[in-house]
């Protein structure tokens, strides 16, 4: 509510509320926001998510659902920027949660004040303000709000962190103090990120969706930069939102200088004398099939376009498809890379495999930013 009130005083805004379907009161709470917006001439939309069917970490699933739903809403309404109401208290709670997971510098740097996801730029304009200071502003304006009872349910990790923060207050460890720590760590993290970008510019290239890392350049890097590069490369190639587990990354790094093939995080890592090649693991995408509609489809990390065809779908080329591409060696790409590339199928019949040079009129391109650009926008 404070985010809405403060931004509406300076900008033309639209508001969106996500009803997670987890509490019967949520619909009334969304209607409360709708009435507030209607009184002030602010457009308001309610989006709904079936949280009752979520599996695993409910809080994380809800967060990802919010980003996806709000991102879709923003793009449909030609809104390029979305503000989130996280405060210094949220930052401090996040810090404690990540501290408990033995996070490194990146994790302990806290939530980013700005990031890009779902085709939208997201902002957290009040990370330096405490929750109570925003409530004070609402009280001064005579504006009421609703407290989510989930924020008092100590089965959630964030609520436990909030309680721990209260216990630490007598030591002077409060939201403002932790905000200062995360700011210092964030500055150090940004400096390392700039060093990583310089290494990427010198030693990393793209080849039909693969990443090639110069072996000698990689060997000369500081171990922390090696770790960051490999984690970023695995995420970019796989499209995964999260990094692989630290122990698995460390195990990979201990072996990566040795020739051979390895798999991790839905990727195949091939170490040679001259380069380390990271490509999508064909098996990781083997079950992914997407229908072609009006000559276009988004499959895995690829945007595929071509002539309109009847009853066709995009799936991995695989070994079965390679056997139908007699000239695949002319591409100069490894067999494993082509096996993980997109192909257009009609049943068991291969219609086209753009990366393998089979079938006229079809194209495939990576649907996300180039690796270096993606790193900048992280």
Automatic annotation (TrEMBL):
<dbReference type="InterPro" id="IPR011063">
    <property type="entry name" value="TilS/TtcA_N"/>
</dbReference>
<keyword id="KW-0547">Nucleotide-binding</keyword>
<protein>
    <recommendedName>
        <fullName>tRNA(Ile)-lysidine synthase</fullName>
        <ecNumber>6.3.4.19</ecNumber>
    </recommendedName>
</protein>
<keyword id="KW-0819">tRNA processing</keyword>
<comment type="function">
    <text>Ligates lysine onto the cytidine present at position 34 of the AUA codon-specific tRNA(Ile) that contains the anticodon CAU, in an ATP-dependent manner. Cytidine is converted to lysidine, thus changing the amino acid specificity of the tRNA from methionine to isoleucine.</text>
</comment>
<dbReference type="InterPro" id="IPR012795">
    <property type="entry name" value="tRNA_Ile_lys_synt_N"/>
</dbReference>
<dbReference type="InterPro" id="IPR012094">
    <property type="entry name" value="tRNA_Ile_lys_synt"/>
</dbReference>
<comment type="similarity">
    <text>Belongs to the tRNA(Ile)-lysidine synthase family.</text>
</comment>
<dbReference type="InterPro" id="IPR014729">
    <property type="entry name" value="Rossmann-like_a/b/a_fold"/>
</dbReference>
<dbReference type="Pfam" id="PF01171">
    <property type="entry name" value="ATP_bind_3"/>
</dbReference>
<keyword id="KW-0067">ATP-binding</keyword>
<keyword id="KW-0963">Cytoplasm</keyword>
<keyword id="KW-0436">Ligase</keyword>
<dbReference type="GO" id="GO:0032267">
    <property type="term" value="F:tRNA(Ile)-lysidine synthase activity"/>
</dbReference>
<feature type="domain" description="tRNA(Ile)-lysidine/2-thiocytidine synthase N-terminal">
    <location>
        <begin position="10"/>
        <end position="163"/>
    </location>
</feature>
């Amino acid at each position: 509510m404070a985010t809405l009130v403060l931004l509406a005083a300076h900008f033309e805004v639209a508001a969106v509320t996500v009803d997670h379907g987890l509490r019967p009161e949520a619909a009334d709470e969304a209607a409360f926001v709708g009435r507030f917006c209607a009184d002030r001439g602010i457009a308001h939309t309610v989006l709904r998510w079936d949280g009752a069917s979520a599996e695993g970490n409910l809080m994380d699933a809800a967060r990802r659902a919010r980003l996806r739903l709000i991102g879709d809403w923003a793009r449909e309404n030609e809104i390029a920027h979305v503000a989130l109401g996280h405060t210094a208290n949220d930052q401090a709670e996040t810090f404690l949660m990540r501290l408990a997971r033995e996070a490194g510098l990146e994790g302990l740097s806290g939530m980013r004040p700005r990031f890009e996801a779902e085709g939208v730029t997201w902002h957290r304009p009040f990370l330096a303000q405490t929750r109570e200071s925003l409530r004070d502003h609402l009280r001064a304006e005579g504006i009421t709000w609703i407290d989510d009872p989930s924020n008092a349910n100590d089965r959630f990790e964030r609520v436990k962190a909030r309680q721990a923060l209260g216990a630490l207050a007598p030591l002077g460890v409060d939201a403002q103090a932790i905000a200062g720590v995360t700011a210092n760590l964030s500055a150090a993290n940004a400096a390392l990120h700039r060093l990583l970008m310089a290494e990427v510019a010198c030693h990393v290239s793209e080849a039909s969706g693969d990443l090639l890392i110069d072996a000698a350049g990689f060997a000369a890097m500081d171990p922390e930069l090696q770790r960051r590069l490999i984690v970023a490369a695995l995420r970019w190639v796989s499209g995964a939102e999260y990094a692989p587990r630290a122990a698995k990354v460390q195990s990979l790094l201990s072996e990566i200088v040795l020739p051979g093939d390895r798999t991790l995080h839905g990727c195949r890592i091939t170490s040679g004398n001259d380069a380390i090649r990271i490509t999508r693991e064909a098996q990781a995408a083997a079950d992914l099939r997407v229908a072609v509609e009006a000559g276009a489809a988004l499959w895995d990390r690829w945007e595929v376009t071509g002539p309109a065809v009847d009853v066709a779908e995009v799936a991995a080329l695989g070994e079965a498809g390679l056997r139908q591409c007699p000239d695949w060696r002319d591409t100069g790409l490894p067999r494993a890379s082509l096996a993980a590339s997109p192909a257009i199928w009609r049943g068991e019949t291969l219609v086209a495999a753009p990366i393998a040079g089979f079938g006229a009129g079809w194209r495939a391109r990576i649907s996300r930013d180039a690796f270096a650009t993606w790193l900048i926008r992280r």
